[in-house]
Write a structure and sequence with these properties.
single chain, about 270 residues, alpha/beta, UDP-N-acetylmuramoyl-L-alanine:D-glutamate ligase, globular
Length: about 270
């Protein structure tokens, strides 16, 4: 089990080492993601020019890839960055934004995942379902309500094991599994769905924690941290400044927050 002390120790390590995290993310959320990583204690770089991917990704402690706002030049950059991460054994995560509503994105992600297995595969229910071959009914990049996730856990776990990756399926309850361990994180607030980029930020935070911890632990730490920050922001009662309140809490989160607010359980297959 991952404890509040474990997460705080990793936070301290990030603050001390200031790891460089390369993010190829949704342009709508790039500023939000960069500020969240700075608040975590990491150093973000948001480069997307294919010709510099080898140099920049090769110097990073982790890579976070997001399929939002995909285009020809961005796919070329992602491919080069992922190739470099694989060659240099740099941990990387992929956020399957829109993979449930775009066959192009799903096919591109599937090819990447099969050829260069990521440390973490992140997606909402619809996106994860699309990757795992589960029936879904997505409209746009949002996720449908799936209710009880337990019927899907074993299928998702088997997919994670097949790819030798951790899958993080986000929702009212976040499911995180490598096929052997299953974590359930219940932090967060419905208000987070009203603000663009909260999911993208979670992917970036996952990259931050990947720089100092194994994929399963990194995913749980990121989900708990983002969830607590979302709860704090929702408590301020403002949509317009929601993202600023999330950044504030990522920066100021302490042992009290983790010990009192963390809602996380874990079991084995």
């Amino acid at each position: 089990m991952i404890t509040a002390d474990n997460i705080l120790s990793l936070r301290e390590k990030i603050t001390q080492t200031r790891p460089l995290i390369h993010c190829i993310t949704n342009p709508v959320a790039a500023n939000f993601c960069a500020n969240a990583l700075l608040a975590l204690g990491a150093k973000p770089i948001m480069a997307e020019f294919a010709e510099e991917m080898s140099e920049i990704t090769g110097a990073a402690a982790a890579l976070s890839v997001n399929l939002g706002g995909i285009n020809e030049s961005k796919t070329a950059a992602i491919l080069k960055a992922v190739e470099t991460a694989h060659k240099c054994t740099i941990p990387w995560c992929i956020d399957l934004v829109g993979a449930a509503c775009s066959s192009y994105r799903l096919n591109f992600a599937s090819e990447l995942i099969h050829k260069y297995p990521p440390s973490v595969i992140k997606g909402n229910f619809s996106e994860t379902a699309a990757l795992c071959g589960i029936e879904h009914h997505a409209e746009g990049v949002g996720s449908e309500e799936c209710g009880d996730i337990s019927p899907y856990a074993q299928i998702i776990g088997k997919t994670a094991a097949r790819f030798s990756s951790v899958i993080m399926m986000t929702g009212e309850t976040d499911l995180i599994t490598d096929g052997k361990r299953f974590a359930y994180v219940k932090n967060g607030d419905p208000m987070m769905t009203l603000v663009t980029g909260t999911g993208c930020v979670l992917g970036s935070l996952t990259g931050g924690f990947l720089s100092v911890s194994p994929p399963f632990e990194a995913s749980v730490c990121a989900a708990v941290t983002m969830g607590i920050a979302g709860e704090y922001a929702a408590g301020q009662g403002s949509v317009g400044s929601f993202d600023s309140h999330i950044i504030d809490k990522i920066y100021s989160i302490d042992s009290n927050d983790y010990n009192i607010c963390m809602r996380y359980t874990e079991n084995e297959a």
